[in-house]
Amino acid sequence: MLDLTFEPPKPKVIAGAKHDWELVIGMEVHAQVSSKAKLFSGASTQFGAEPNSNVSFVDAAMPGMLPVINEFCVEQAVRTGLGLKAEINLMSAFDRKNYFYPDLPQGYQISQLYHPIVGEGEVLVEMGPGVARKVRIERIHLEQDAGKSIHDMDPHMSFVDLNRTGVALMEIVSRPDIRGPEEAAAYITKLRQILRYLGTCDGNMQNGNLRADVNVSICLPGAYEKYQETQDFSHLGTRCEIKNMNSMRFIQQAIEYEARRQIAIVEGGGKVDQETRLYDPDKGETRSMRSKEEAHDYRYFPDPDLLPLEIEQAWVDDIAASLPELPDQKKARFMGDYGLSDYDASVLTAEHENAAFFEDVANASDGKLAANWVINDLFGRLKKDGDKGISESPVSPAQLGGIINLIQKGDISGKIAKDLFEIVYTEGGDPAEIVEARGMKQVTDTGAIEAAVEQVIADNPAQVEKAKQNPKLAGWFVGQVMKATGGKANPKAVNEIVQAKLGL
């Protein structure tokens, strides 16, 4: 099982003019539920459709239209909660969050404030071998997405696309356990990885299917530990929220800028205002969106059109039984079963498809060799070939396993294997048949190798004398024999015969 002995990473420290300061970060991640229909209507969730084509009467808030809960979206939220080792609430309820915005036709968003479907969980965020942060999840609630306002189609008018309206979101709220920009990016990466393994969110940040609101505050060294002991937020600084971040790089940049902005205010004798801010990537800075005083009073109240959501423990248990092997478990198994390093296991389990491909290769050959070939040769070649994913690989697990088996049997050398891999990648075919047909088989006949060694020794008497004085020069003879045999001689056999013939 997973070795949970780890040290927490050191918090990010920023030197101010007067003090050193530490960062405290909490995240609210909005993950779009992978579902064909919306949360309360049967309208499609397909991305990239014509504007306002995936809109039902419910989404458009036509009079008399009532929401009907999508059971599959509820199942996906439960599945996510279980994947994050969280408490599942058998009773939850939907509220109306009232605010006016052109892309919200109802004039309210249906959400879960007081009774969310998922309670406390955790995410283990690894920052390196033996270094990890356990980030606590406070809650996950289901809610509707809003539409999209488009301001750049006309100089005088704005347009509204309601395709996203009513799409199911999971808002995953963390505790303020993250202590630096790199940790924040690693947390999002890990959360995205788990969601993709579970199949509950595709994690596409470019399309806005995964986006984060980042809460940033600063504190003096030692204050965070007092907060952890007491859970009293007064030990921490005033937080500011950076809205709608959908890039790992920009998340890190925004946190760094925001922390330095707050440090400058506090050290200048000012007070940080609690507010919502936006990050401008072009300027590399955050700017105020709305202050706490100006914030909307959302006037939450239970949605009168929706009964409290009651689910059964047996249903939750069935979902739990169908969960896939999650990244932490898979990584631990790869390290245990195949003897992989922490790094190799992390790379191979980053995506579910990569892990499945590797395992198919490993089961047909050797685990360590398979890891080496998948990571270095296959991934490297796919990247060179237009940054392709594993699903686009022209080399199948069986073909790659076949190449590795040929190396293990001694039929081909490592060098020949590289040439063979390129042939299989570009032309396809069975590796064993290609080796036979093209005469690529390694020369293992010691008689033939011995003859080649003797010839090289006879042709280079001066080099022989040098090698007897300096045994390290024997490698030169090995290289010459390999060249003479077109790289087909077994390197191990060549080395042994060279050593014997030179009397080393």
Folded structure, characterized:
A hairpin with an 8-residue loop joins strand 8 and strand 9 (159-161). 39% of the residues lie in helices and 19% in strands. It has helices at residues 71-83, 181-198, 223-230, 248-267, 313-321, 327-338, 342-349, 352-364, 367-384, 397-409, 414-427, 431-437, 446-459, 461-469, 474-484, 491-502; strands spanning 13-15, 20-32, 91-92, 95-98, 108-111, 121-128, 131-144, 148-150, 159-161, 168-174, 210-219, 240-245, 275-280, 285-291, 301-302, 309-310. The protein folds into three domains: 25-216 and 294-320, no CATH class; 325-437, no CATH class; 446-502, Arc Repressor Mutant, subunit A. Helix 6 (327-338) packs across helix 7, helix 13 (446-459) crosses helix 15 (474-484) and helix 15 (474-484) packs across helix 16 (491-502). It is of the alpha+beta class and 504 residues long. Strands 1, 2, 6, 7, 10, 11, 12, 13 and 14 form a nine-stranded mixed beta sheet that branches. Strands 5-4-15 form a three-stranded antiparallel beta sheet, with no helix packed on it. It is elongated.
